Amino acid sequence: xxxxxxxxxxxxxxxxxxxxxxxxxxxxxxxxxxxxxxxxxxxxxxxxxxxxxxxxxxxxxxxxxxxxxxxxxxxxxxxxxxxxxxxxxxxxxxxxxxxxxxxxxxxxxxxxxxxxxxxxxxxxxxxxxxxxxxxxxxxxxxxxxxxxxxxxxxxxxxxxxxxxxxxxxxxxxxxxxxxxxxxxxxxxxxxxxxxxxxxxxxxxxxxxxxxxxxxxxxxxxxxxxxxxxxxxxxxxxxxxxxxxxxxxxxxxxxxxxxxxxxxxxxxxxxxxxxxxxxxxxxxxxxxxx
Length: 289
Description:
Elements: H1 5-18, H2 54-59, E1 89-91, H3 96-104, E2 116-118, H4 123-147, H5 154-164, H6 170-190, H7 194-214, H8 228-243, H9 255-258, H10 262-282
Antiparallel strand pairs: 1-2
Helix pairs in contact: 4-5, 4-6, 4-8, 5-6, 6-7, 7-8, 7-10
């Protein structure tokens, strides 16, 4: 019987594979259970490359790689142009130069990128009430001295009071003092050129305080002989200079209305200096004894 050639070739291949030292020996490590993506994608494959940058890690590979990681969406702030105008003060997170420009220009009062919104609440209403109280009181007392209204002394009576108190240039001082109270009080009510208006009232109150103080020996505070009325009005005028008149005023769009700084501090020094100089050079008495 002749053997089939195909059978002999198959038998020879089987004997060769079974023989030790010949051919490939199977191993359990030939097929790993987990395969990591290669550093570069293979041709024809999609999404097999490892991420190279932080952006690829966060948003996926630009080549369309699908990464087996959880993506946390990042918060993206919108630009300042998308925000409407806000009637509030803002604190910018930018550089000092940009902050200075914002403080000097009320038109830049916008909520921008990195800014923190600061609401004013009832602050402007409180400043309005303070201005009306101080300005109204100064106005009516000035009209008493200037015109004699409400049983006031008038200019002649006011001049006589100043002469009896030891003031020099009493006539000129009576006119300036009465006009200063009237103008300062009216401007405080309106909230117009507020730092100078409050400085005028402050200067008048300093002289009124010293005048009241020398009338009685020793330091006096409580009414009717003390200085509590003049002290309260003078301090309130100084507070208005330092805080500004608020937005409910004719100065509402100016820098000193909501962000008083160097100019308002200079107005405070001016008011104090004017009051003290008038007393020293035109009276000279020591009110502290």
